[in-house]
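fyi for ur records
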Amino acid sequence: MVKSYIKSDIITQLLWYQDMGVDEAIGFTPRSWLGSVSINYDRLNHLESLIAEPKMAYGIDTLSKSTKKESEAKNSSLPIKSISNDDLPLESIKNLKELRLALENFEGCSLKHSATNLVFADGNPQAKIMLIGEAPGADEDRQGKPFVGVSGQLLDRMFEHIGLDRAHNIYISNIIFWRPPGNRAPTSSEIAACFPFVQKHINLIDPSILVVLGGIAAKTLLNTNEGITRLRGKWFDYYDPYSLKSIPVLCMYHPAFLLRQPAQKRYAWRDLLALKEKLTLKG
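which gave:
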């Protein structure tokens, strides 16, 4: 028996999809998945014969070359080059306004073409503490600010418990400046494209302490393969290639992970207390 959905049920379902990050259409037209499927048996038999005879014109070698060319053609519209600091005029950038402008004009990351907004930063640029997350989500993409969704609200409450907030003594950014489609994890090439800007961003803020949220941010900033479970709660040093000085780094679970695993919040609280103690020692 097919359930009869009312308007409120449909709206509730759509809101759930939105919270889960499912906010993009898959196809241009609706498709009935319950209708009958028409099978072209002549075409099917022809394809089977091709597979059985690899020496024909469409043999394995020909197919692999054709597939490779098609793949290269599809990817050529949004090329991703290997980016280094030498390829970018980052040395001449002297302030956050110039850095943001450089990112707005940057064409080395294909995420820019699928995102709605550049998600640069939020908080007080004069803060002693700089938080670095992973990648923007749907809410961040719409507003152009990091950590403004449900995980951002949790982040704010967490730091308020130790007397910190983004309006006065916290500055927040991400490893990735544009939202990956469907909230997928960023690729290594996307991280590599954005990382020189992250390094310059840290240099301009010149924080006393860096707090990295989540495994992707921790691995990138510390250049390690260790997972966040092993890294969290520990202090490390980040080397600034511009100022040639080290900055203390504390690794923490990402608030989105804490929403999925509430039992891990006790570890986040320990990390916050460690951060508070460090701030007290630094004066």
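The two ends are 68 Å apart (CA to CA). thats all i got for now
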